[in-house]
């Protein structure tokens, strides 16, 4: 007589041959966590490959070059505004940078060398800054949306820093190239002729506004980013820095407008003698009593 084994009854196959048991899973998880390997193959490999100190180094170079350009901007404003103290003072400042007082004669090429260094610094700073610009309309729209949503003044300042920085690519390049190629045309009459008779005054009005806004915002953001003048109350520090920033911007804008107005006035008065170099009265050779005109001392 034979017996039939009931269905569903009988020995079950060993699970250890087909799948890992709970103990092996625990050991594998522990081993994974100890070695820091991701549970899913490939996850984290991209992030690990991008870990580098270069972004921080580039940020440092960008900050340093921006600081140098801002300080040069202030010094440049001080030099050109010497026209407000008189034509002779501006002539002396010009000749000082041409080496006249310690080399015995003027060498405008010295000015070209300084301008070339400024151009190199300007290009380096621009190349590093453009890394953070929105590179597509979608990115720009996203940022604009965030800016309107956050209503944070620092975010708005960054937006205007980007706008003015982009404008400076074109505005500053024209002025720097002119100074690089025509360093001998800097002086009370020479600069005034360029401003008025050469029709540079519209460019200089826009350039003045753009560079002062951009530089002021840049210096404020540098102080915040690197913790300069940091105090126990960050909000109070930011408010103080913004007051200083707007005060400096207003001061240099007023000084720049007054300086540009002085050059325009001199240019209008001198337009009939366009191209004539300025020479202080003390260095002019007096004309003979019979008539004639005063002659200039050779440059």
Going by CATH, the architecture would be Up-down Bundle
Give the tally of structural domains. Answer: 1
Name the helix and strand elements from N-terminus to C-terminus, one letter apiece. Answer: HHHHHHHHHHH
**How many β strands by DSSP?**
0
The CATH topology name reads: 3 helical TM bundles of succinate and fumarate reductases
Task: Give the CA-CA distance, first to last residue.
Answer: 134 Å
Q: Strand-residue fraction?
A: under 5%
CATH level-4 homologous superfamily? Fumarate reductase/succinate dehydrogenase, transmembrane subunit
Largest sheet: none
Q: Point out poorly predicted stretches.
A: 12-20, 32-39, 286-298
- Mean pLDDT metric: 83
Overall, the morphology is elongated
Give Rg in angstroms.
Answer: 34 Å
> How many H/I helices?
11
Going by helix content, strand content and strand pairing, the class is: mainly alpha
> What is the CATH class designation?
Mainly Alpha
Tell me the helix content.
55-70%
Describe the structure.
With 299 residues, the protein is mostly helical. It has one domain: 3 helical TM bundles of succinate and fumarate reductases, CATH 1.20.1300.10. Helices cover 66% and strands 0% of the residues. The chain has 11 helices and no strands. The chain has helices at residues 22-35, 45-49, 54-80, 87-97, 100-103, 109-129, 137-150, 153-181, 188-196, 201-225, 234-270. Helix 8 packs across helix 10 (201-225). The longest helix is centred in the C-terminal third of the chain and has 37 residues, at 234-270. It is elongated. It starts with 21 loop residues before the first helix and ends in a 29-residue tail after the last helix.
